[in-house]
Amino acid sequence: MQYIKKTNKVIQEIGKNISGLAILSMMTIIVLDVVMRNIFKTSIPGSYVIIENFLMPIAIFPALGYVYMVHILPRLSEFIERRSEKYQRINKFMLLTIDVIVFGLLTYYTFLFFLDGFNNQIAVPVATNFVPLWPIYFVIPVGYLLVLQEVLLQLIHEIRHSLAKNKT
């Protein structure tokens, strides 16, 4: 289990770094586009399409698992901390189960969306060429899969913790 947790942490860190590079690329393209537009009176062809269709999904979805792992997403902790320990445990299991179902469905349906884009060879015009968009669609289910993996690890941890607590 420790190996799985360490591997998961490495994967989440890689996702965070990929998202960071996408954000840095977006900033660089925007700055270069503004400079070129103001100094040379021309812009980077297709910069808006590149940012919108390629860099934005890469900036968001690979980091989802990391964001979930470090607990940046909002929680209901103030309300729940005032309840009994039994209520807190039941609530945590219920929320993790709902998360598993929701992110499982999101992973499944976004993977179907990727397959549809692959089968139809979805592409967008960038400058004078058509660039395939379907590879970027693969990033979306991977992002949700990383969150699902993190939720499953938390659920397994809570089940083990609860079973160990009941034995004592």
From TrEMBL:
PANTHER family, per database record: 2,3-DIKETO-L-GULONATE TRAP TRANSPORTER SMALL PERMEASE PROTEIN YIAM
Main subcellular location: membrane
Protein name, entry field: TRAP transporter small permease
Membrane is among the record's keywords: yes
Assigned keywords, A-Z: Cell inner membrane, Cell membrane, Membrane, Transmembrane, Transmembrane helix, Transport
Compartment annotation: Cell inner membrane
Domain Tripartite ATP-independent periplasmic transporters DctQ component: 26-160
Family statement drawn from the similarity comment of this UniProt entry: Belongs to the TRAP transporter small permease family.
Provenance organism: Oceanobacillus halophilus
CC per GO annotation: plasma membrane
